[in-house]
Amino acid sequence: MTGRIRFTHAEVAKMLEVLRDLNAMPKRPIIQGLTDDLNASPDRSGDGQVPVQYSQVHTWFQNRRYTQKRRGERPPAQGKMLPTGAEAQHPASYRVQSSCPSNSESQSGNASSDCGLVQLEAKSPTNGAWFDVAAILSYRFSETGDQEIQVWFSGFGAEEEEWINVCKSVRLRSLPCIDTECVGVLPGDLILCYQVRKEQALYFDAHVLEVERRTHDLRGCRCSFLVRYDHDHSEEMVPLRKVCRRPSADVKIDIVIDDSLAEPKAQKSHKRMDTNPDEVTVVPGPPNQGGRSDKLAAPLLITPDSTHRDSVADEQMGDIEAAPKGEATSKAHGDKMNVGA
DNA sequence: TGCCTGCCGCCTGTAGTGAG
DNA sequence: CTCACTACAGGCGGCAGGCA
């Protein structure tokens, strides 16, 4: 008899990767190998840890495939789901790399396990809110020479893709704060804050004006933060769960793009550009062997366990599904939080 | 009035079952 | 063996009531 277990985000990321690679139900040897692999990790091999069973991994794949199918999702891209309704193919024509110091112990050649791959957020020109970038579809250069990328926002359909100025409106994703990180939120800090209004609930840049510290209880941080939103200068008190901190600066990002899929005018070689504040860079990548000529949805290669969704949010948030952007529900930025279920 | 706590409902993830 | 579906447990947020 096997008890009910809950897979960690690292495990889910690993299984998602298998699912993405195979795009089919894994065979028994693969599942068995994956089971052994998971059980070899510190999460499962330590004292008092509950090892996962083959049947549990198998069931997970079954359920995952079924739920994806039911929701009309495509196989996940490196631990991140593509936007709902994404029907295009998704060769790895683009990928985002950060040029952080090489402290990575790349596991078994898995590109997603090192620090070189990052998650981005982009500011929608439509409403000025920040959304997680789920996939970069294409890129181009504007008349002014600025780099622009066409993105899918996480949780939105392909019909809502937008062109984003890389320099001005693309950056590393903000990180939701865990309870113990409230002490790091100080007056004057730039944060990403979840603003809930009757008509919409979106993430906007904001600055911390005041911090009201309170004793934490079983539910975690009870502190409150007075913030002023940059876009409308409104002020409000928010709990920590609505606060996402900006990652440390001085991180360079490379968006590696397959030239064969980019627009003709984007045929440039390794162009570096500075952005705010994380210096996002777009560079052509190696030729794609796929040989497709139409524009394709290309997933970001993102680090499943490197950012909020899999580290911070692991303890405090659930998984998120897509929501229409117009509704602007909490799910619109699901990777950061799940408010107002 | 604000804080604390418990209850309730919803949602999600995992397990179980039957059909093909 | 996979797929489709359901059952169930747990987490989370909202809300109301009690209390200082």
**How many structural domains can be distinguished in the coordinates?**
3
Biggest beta sheet summary: 6 strands, antiparallel
Mean pLDDT: 59
Radius of gyration: 20 Å
What does it look like?
The structure is a single chain. It contains six helices and 15 strands. The longest helix is centred in the first third of the chain and has 17 residues. It has 341 residues and is an alpha+beta fold. A hairpin with an 8-residue loop joins strand 4 and strand 5. Helices cover 17% and strands 25% of the residues. The strands form three sheets. Strands 2, 3, 4, 5, 6 and 15 form a six-stranded antiparallel sheet that branches. The protein folds into three domains: 62 residues, Arc Repressor Mutant, subunit A (Orthogonal Bundle); 132 residues, Beta Barrel (OB fold (Dihydrolipoamide Acetyltransferase, E2P)), CATH 2.40.50; 70 residues, SH3 type barrels (Roll). It is flat and about 55 Å long. The structure holds a DNA duplex (20 and 20 nucleotides). One of its GO terms (molecular function) is chromatin binding. Keywords: DNA-binding, Homeobox, Nucleus. This is Homeobox domain-containing protein. It holds the Pfam family SAWADEE. One of its GO terms (cellular component) is nucleus.
